[in-house]
């Protein structure tokens, strides 16, 4: 599509906008009817540890929203010489789960508690037993019950509880709706795509809950499946998004989703027996189930696709943060030598060095824990590199250990699905920044998981593009299933590159994982010692 055609579509409002609030970046992507990105904008942000809680400030949520959209609008203006006055449809996605409670005056009662917090262990364990359904630490209901057990004063004033995506959607549309995928990270969802009625009643019947003036079903958002109109952009919402007043109200709003749901969309992994892996600050694998699991597993979440199909999810709190931190050290060192390396060149150079590594990373062990890691029962984050005097401490082994450690917790969780439950997939598609350097991160993941891993040619498009596709699906009228829509409309010309596990690499990764699990007590000891010093 040429510039003139694209400009015409923009003027006619034949566009869809996806905005995703990721862990380190808020990104906006605009697409047209051919699903190709025509403009984007972004805003960098970072969570902070405040009074023992991982959070982002409420003000920065909207600063980032405005700045990412403003950058996108400027991109459109400079490239196509038109302004965005109308948008056909808009979708908001964000980090799944977490805790955003509001009072009857729509005031946030406590700072946003993100997925990264691991303070809810007792509450999650009790709810898992009560529901006979795994409740992860980061789920909204675990945070709520934790606050109840801690007798936090704000709980009595809760009038509405939502996720980050649900919150931003509410501010733009005035509607308290949520997509079923994101909803399934708040509270158990049943086969109909609604909050499970039995679990709702069990929660309400708890003695600790009956002390409060609300019932759980009254304070949760309304759940919608993909393709359903979830509201319209209001005049106030348009001004919130674009304070210049250029953008007009009226855009269709898609059900807000979590980043796991948009990851499934951007990898076309919403059919039965398909799976995907997303890697970033955190990482997770998703497998769409064709039959129920045999039993409840503490480390396996049961969530849904944006269309409501059941999904087994392995969620890992920590992935690329330690790699990013070390890369900044190498960048600073290069700068001292007078070398100005851009980010892509730096990462590519470091990743390609792993070709010279020993298969087991030379005896090194690394823990990339910036926060607690539930799957390894690690309560607090302490990035840690361990080696013996006989370890082969080379740059190549160091970088391989970094990548192994990013994937190791995922392997531990995936073994539950593949070995204990016998779950298999027809395809496992990976996406995320670690795959921007071709082959390296993909092959190491295949070796660690001992599974073929595919990467799409559009792997860098990611969640915000996936959310824009969901918004376009709403605008299309959703006349066909989401699975058919993606296959027949969106991914018709998609290309995959698949890498199979290498026997030597699989053996090396297995040796590394054994050391990793053996030395885990060191990670927990480091947390205790650090706390003592503080």
Question: What features would you highlight for this structure?
Answer:
534 residues; 18 helices; alpha/beta; single chain; seven-stranded mixed beta sheet; 3 domains; Nucleotidyltransferase, domain 5
Topology (elements, then pairings):
Elements: H1 3-12, E1 16-21, E2 25-31, E3 37-44, E4 48-50, E5 53-55, H2 58-80, E6 89-94, E7 100-102, H3 121-131, H4 140-149, E8 160-162, H5 164-173, E9 177-179, H6 180-183, H7 197-204, H8 216-219, E10 222-224, H9 235-241, E11 252-253, E12 257-258, H10 259-266, E13 274-279, E14 283-288, E15 301-304, E16 310-316, H11 321-336, H12 343-352, E17 365-367, E18 384-386, H13 395-420, E19 427-432, H14 440-449, E20 453-456, H15 462-475, H16 482-490, E21 496-499, H17 503-518, H18 520-533
Parallel strand pairs: 1-6, 6-11, 6-12, 9-10, 13-19, 19-20
Antiparallel strand pairs: 1-2, 2-3, 4-5, 7-8, 13-14, 14-16, 15-16, 17-18, 20-21
Average pLDDT confidence is 94
Q: So what's the overall shape?
A: globular
Helix-and-strand structural type? alpha/beta
Low-confidence blocks of residues: none
The whole-angstrom Rg is 23 Å
> Which architecture of the largest domain does the CATH hierarchy give at level 2?
2-Layer Sandwich
Tell me the major beta sheet.
7 strands, mixed
Helix content: 25-40%
Tally of domains: 3
CATH topology of the largest domain: Nucleotidyltransferase, domain 5
Q: What portion of residues belong to β-strands?
A: 15-25%
Q: What is the highest CATH level, the class of the largest domain?
A: Alpha Beta
Total of helices: 18
Could you state the CATH homologous superfamily of the largest domain? ATPase, nucleotide binding domain
Count of strand segments: 21
The rounded distance between the terminal residues' Cα atoms is 58 Å
Strand order of the largest sheet: 15-16-14-13-19-20-21
